[in-house]
Amino acid sequence: MKFDGKRVLITGSSRGIGQAAARVFLGLGAKVAVNGRSAGSIANGIAALGGGTRVIPALGDVATVKGCEEAVRSAVEGLGGLDVLVNSAGVGDVRPLMDCDEAMWDQVLNVNLKGTFFCIRAAYPFLKASRGNVVNVGSDAGLIGEKKLSVYCASKAGVVNMTRALALELAPDVRVNCVCPGYTDTDMVRRDIEKAADPALAEAEAMSYAPLKRMAQPEEIGKAIAYLASDDAGFITGAAFSIDGGSTAGHP
């Protein structure tokens, strides 16, 4: 896979899977726009990537339409166009049904689903011009249900099926795919583990959830994202690519 000169915007790339994807793309020769909700988080993310002339900031809170448009505009101006959009910004909250309130629903759906849609809408003219593509970050929770994650599951299931719908609508000019990671060893997952009543048990459950009996490393997801964005995947669109250690294959 080669991305020499390719221009990539990755939302939520100041940390987690988004940052791992940014590192992969940079290693393959791309120019990358790092997105976050604050200038400080972006600066930290760029520093963690080693800085350099191939990394630029793209400030914008993708929970809002305005923030999506600002992030895309900054990326296009700084990169001189756009070849790949990766929608990696995401939030989740482990809560039983009766503890889920409107504010929590709005936060999860706004970032995970609305943000993905409106970033694609803002980026589409530039991706059409470059015959580029989109990779959304879904989840195994968008393919199967998980207890105490009903709101997160709803948001990620929306991302998966929206990927299919937009792949049909934007073809043949722009490919649209998504990756569906299982438990991945990111700060978001670690934060949920630490908040659990029994953190040791929560970590053990996360490690044993998939048949491969471990969590994914963020770089493993980043490499899959890069594959779907590459010319090697030129005949793939509308796909939901599971990278979950077998969690969606079934459970005994």
User: By CATH's scheme, which homologous superfamily applies?
Assistant: NAD(P)-binding Rossmann-like Domain
What kind of oligomer do you see?
Answer: single chain
Q: What integer value in Å does the Rg equal?
A: 17 Å
Instruction: Give the % helix.
Output: 40-55%
CATH architecture: 3-Layer(aba) Sandwich
Low-pLDDT ranges: none
Structural class: alpha/beta
Task: Note down, in words, how this protein is organized.
This protein has 252 residues and is of the alpha/beta class. The chain has a single domain, classed as 3-Layer(aba) Sandwich (Rossmann fold). 47% of the residues lie in helices and 14% in strands. α1 (16-27) crosses α8 (218-229).
Write the layout of secondary structure elements.
Layout: E1 7-10, H1 16-27, E2 31-36, H2 39-48, E3 55-59, H3 65-79, E4 84-87, H4 102-130, E5 133-137, H5 150-170, E6 175-181, H6 187-195, H7 199-208, H8 218-229, E7 240-243
Parallel strand pairs: 1-2, 1-4, 2-3, 4-5, 5-6, 6-7
Helix pairs in contact: 1-8, 3-4, 4-5, 6-7
Summarize the structure in short.
With 252 residues, this protein is of the alpha/beta class. The protein has helices at 16-27, 39-48, 65-79, 102-130, 150-170, 187-195, 199-208, 218-229, and strands at residues 7-10, 31-36, 55-59, 84-87, 133-137, 175-181, 240-243.
